[in-house]
Amino acid sequence: MTITKTLIDNVHIFIPDVFVDTRGWFMETYNKIKTLEIDCEFVQDNHSYSAQKNTLRGIHFQRSPMAQAKLVRCIRGAILDFAVDLRTDSETFRQWICVELSAKNKKQLFIPRGFGHAFITLEDDTEIVYKVDNYYSAEHDGTILWSDPEIGIKWGVDDPILSDKDKNAPLLKGIKL
Q: Has 49 been annotated as catalytic?
């Protein structure tokens, strides 16, 4: 497994070694020993299915003390996956990175605590799975409007498919992180 750093500290791309033969392929998706620089203990796995291309989910986060680190991968279809730095004391506050994750490229994105997470599907029938290092807490759950100009994500689509939660989310300047 290769772990590549991104332009934002502590956000990493995991590229697994894929072993292919006539039967198909095998890959190790996570190994704590090989990822020692990632300081977290995953406690929950989540699985998300989106039926249609251009489905946008996010920008979601959990406030401390229930903040979550995530290791995200796409097991069917493809997404553009976004990590948004919400650490107010960070030099990269409000900056974001985007990585294409797909069943084909098998890449994974590690998003540390203190970040918002969002993705948009590039294909119909897309599934992602992700590990988190803290349990979901409705009391600490937060959402930022997907089109917040202060963050300025370039989604590549003007009219995404959104949940009511994501359509009605507040701007970053109107929430407590």
A: no
Which residue of the set 49, 117, 130, 140 is catalytic? 130
pLDDT by residue (tens digit) across 48-59? 999 999 999 999
Catalytic, 136? Answer no
Scanning 22-112, the segments in alpha helix (DSSP H) are: none
SS3 95: coil
Each residue's pLDDT tens digit, 19-37: 999 999 999 988 887 776 7
Q: Are 99 and 7 in contact (CB under 8 A)?
A: no
Task: Calculate the alpha carbon distances from 34 to 75, 93, 106 in Å.
Answer: 21, 29, 17
Domains of the chain, CATH where assigned:
2-18+41-174 (2.60.120.10)
Q: Looking at the predicted structure, is the pLDDT value of residue 116 above 90?
A: yes
| Residue of 60, 135, 136, 140 marked catalytic | 60
